[in-house]
């Protein structure tokens, strides 16, 4: 585990930070989280834990604060001018917003993948994965090719690209680009993986490949996915959290529970109305 307040010297990131087991890996917890954009409150008083070795799906209609919530989980929210946060986000029991915590180290431990694939357009497939290591200051030495291979193999992309590693990452299909971005995130060995609508811009075949990948990754990572797709949440997640904005346009957490329970016998009437398509 990397501490959040110092820059450690890591000579071999794979040996020093093996993929965490289901027992070892650290979960993530938001505690009474409230966020602002300028003077506008986006989400209010959200408390939500993300289990180790599980996929948590966050669902809800547009504008309810789903993306804002997960951006707070690795301090991406604060890069927006005028944005601020109150409350706590605990990673292995340590508040990532505490004084002295380095946001760069937070984002090394809590990786993020966005809705639209965003490979670096001027870089090759190989360099797109290597960039994650280099931008985070992780020394690799002669092991860089092995680390790139491990990341691409983990997302089932190696066999598809092994003969064109020097080609631009943008030459790949949309689904392949998204898996490349996931490989880039995994290359730095995070403990938590956040995904904001990762299949929103993909076709059904590519979507199913990403979903299969996520089910495999949950054995080694805490996975959080924002999705508008109810079927996707039901297919891939272990836990589902439903968010909703009120008349004041402030998002809040309505209900959280095992996915099977949320989709068959939700406790809140608003959850039932949403998942049955009565609004949203």
Structure description:
The protein has 280 residues and is an alpha/beta fold. The protein has helices at residues 13-16, 66-72, 103-109, 125-135, 144-154, 158-161, 174-186, 204-217, 230-236, 259-264, 269-275, and strands spanning 28-37, 40-50, 55-59, 83-91, 94-95, 110-113, 192-196, 222-226, 239-245, 251-258. A six-stranded mixed beta sheet has the order 6-7-8-3-9-10, sandwiched between helices. A four-stranded antiparallel beta sheet has the order 2-1-4-5, covered by helices on one side. The chain contains eleven helices and ten strands. Strand 7 (192-196), helix 8 and strand 8 form a beta-alpha-beta unit. The radius of gyration is 19 Å and the shape is globular. The protein is 32% helix and 24% strand.
Provide a quick synopsis of the model:
This protein has helices spanning 13-16, 66-72, 103-109, 125-135, 144-154, 158-161, 174-186, 204-217, 230-236, 259-264, 269-275; strands at residues 28-37, 40-50, 55-59, 83-91, 94-95, 110-113, 192-196, 222-226, 239-245, 251-258. The strands form two sheets. Strands 6-7-8-3-9-10 form a six-stranded mixed β-sheet, with helices on both faces.
């Amino acid at each position: 585990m990397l501490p959040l307040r110092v820059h450690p010297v890591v000579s071999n990131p794979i040996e020093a930070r093996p993929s965490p087991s289901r027992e070892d890996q650290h979960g993530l917890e938001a505690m009474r989280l409230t966020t602002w954009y300028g003077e506008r409150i986006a989400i209010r008083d959200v408390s939500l834990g993300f289990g180790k070795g599980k996929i948590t799906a966050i669902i809800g209609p547009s504008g309810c604060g789903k993306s804002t919530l997960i951006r707070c989980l690795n301090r991406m929210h604060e890069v927006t001018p005028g944005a601020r946060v109150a409350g706590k986000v605990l990673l292995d029991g340590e508040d990532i917003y505490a004084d002295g915590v380095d946001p760069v180290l937070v984002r090394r431990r809590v990786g993020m993948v966005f809705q639209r694939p965003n490979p670096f357009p001027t870089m090759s497939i190989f360099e797109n994965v290597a960039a994650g290591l280099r931008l985070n200051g992780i020394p690799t030495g002669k092991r860089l090719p092995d680390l790139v291979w491990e990341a691409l193999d983990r997302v089932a992309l190696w066999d598809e690209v092994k003969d064109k590693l020097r080609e631009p990452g943008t030459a790949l299909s949309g689904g392949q680009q998204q898996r490349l971005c996931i490989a880039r995130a995994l290359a730095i060995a995070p403990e938590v993986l956040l995904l904001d609508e990762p299949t929103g811009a993909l076709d059904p075949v590519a979507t199913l490949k990403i979903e299969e990948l996520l089910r495999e990754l949950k054995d080694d990572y805490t996975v959080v996915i924002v999705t508008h797709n109810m079927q996707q949440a039901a297919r891939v997640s272990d836990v589902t959290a439903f968010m909703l904005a009120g008349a004041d346009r402030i998002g809040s957490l309505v209900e959280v529970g095992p996915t099977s329970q949320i989709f068959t016998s939700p406790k809140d009437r608003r959850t039932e109305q949403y998942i049955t398509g009565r609004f949203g």
